[in-house]
Design goal:
With about 300 residues, the chain is α/β, with parallel strands linked by helices. It has 13 helices and eight strands.
């Protein structure tokens, strides 16, 4: 198996914002500290959930730098450095490595997309400049581009491409990745598929759910790794309603509402995303109360 960046749960952090959309670093720092105190295994800055798509280049860099400095080596920091422009992804990856990120999460190109040959060239160019492990990120529902198992196997030949975050939702495809690229670390990119992917040899999940209930999300993996598969599956099912509510509107709209209710920021969110509808927000808050996430 390739280098393991983390084992268990990495929170795909929201980026708390003020009502005007300015990044709230005070709240973000408290969120980072609480996540680590809650036993999270790694943290992801500037992923989809962090709204990196609407950050300026300087904001993107500052959030990565701030995260690395605040974490101060307590857990691995994974920096989202992907772009649909290879040159931009190369530059951001180089920067993240320079400021001390432990790994980079690189999404497949979106909108302009790519052929499978283009994906190999894209990820290779990024991995060539990286001094840290690369986690490729497959989320075709957002990008319109699917990273196929045979392509994963080809990318595995690069010494710094270590893992894939698989959010295709296609369990059959994930099984094929495990078969064709057995040395590639697989992380679930979907909170409702943690246990199924662990059962195929996956090592954890890059999670939205753990923004809200980090201890419980970590416990899913802990139970599974300890041999309590039934207990892990039971906990996965107990959290399913919260997972569904966190994705009842486009991510990270519900996650921002949830973390704001927990005291991490004021719930600011950037267009084209809009605040959560009140009906859905109330349903989310009620579920959070049931689980003890808020009072």
């Amino acid at each position: 198996m390739k280098q393991v960046v983390f084992r268990g749960i990495a929170t795909a952090l929201v980026t708390p914002m003020k009502p005007d959309g300015a990044i709230d670093y005070e709240a973000y720092g408290r969120l980072i500290d609480w996540q680590i105190e809650s036993g999270i295994n790694a943290l992801v800055a500037c992923g989809t959930t962090g709204e990196s798509a609407t950050m300026t280049e300087s904001e993107h860099k500052e959030v990565i730098r701030f995260t690395v400095e605040r974490v101060a080596g307590r857990v691995p920091v994974i920096a989202g450095t992907g772009s649909n422009c290879t040159a931009k992804a190369v530059a951001m990856t180089r920067y993240a490595c320079e400021v001390g990120a432990d790994a980079c999460l690189v999404v497949t190109p979106y909108y302009n997309k790519a052929t499978q040959a283009g994906l190999i060239a894209h990820f290779t160019a990024i991995a060539d400049v990286s001094t840290k492990p690369i986690i490729t990120y497959n989320v075709p529902s957002r990008t319109g581009c699917n990273l196929l198992p045979a392509t994963c196997a080809e990318l595995l030949k690069h010494p710094r491409i270590a893992a894939v975050k698989e959010a295709s939702g296609n369990i059959s495809q994930i099984v094929e990745i495990a078969a064709k690229a057995p040395e590639l670390v697989i992380y679930s990119g979907n909170d409702d598929q943690i246990v199924p992917i662990l059962s195929m040899g996956g090592l954890g999940c890059i999670s939205v759910l753990s923004n809200v209930v980090p201890r419980e999300t970590v416990a899913i993996c802990d139970k599974f790794f300890a041999g309590d598969v039934a207990g892990a599956a039971k906990l996965q099912c107990e959290l399913l309603n919260l997972v569904n509510l966190l994705f009842c509107e486009v991510n990270p709209i519900p996650a921002k509402a949830a973390t704001a209710a927990m005291g991490f920021g004021e719930g600011g969110i950037r267009l084209p995303l809009t605040p959560m509808t009140e009906k859905n927000r109330q349903a989310l808050l009620e579920e959070m109360k049931k689980l003890g996430a808020i009072k």
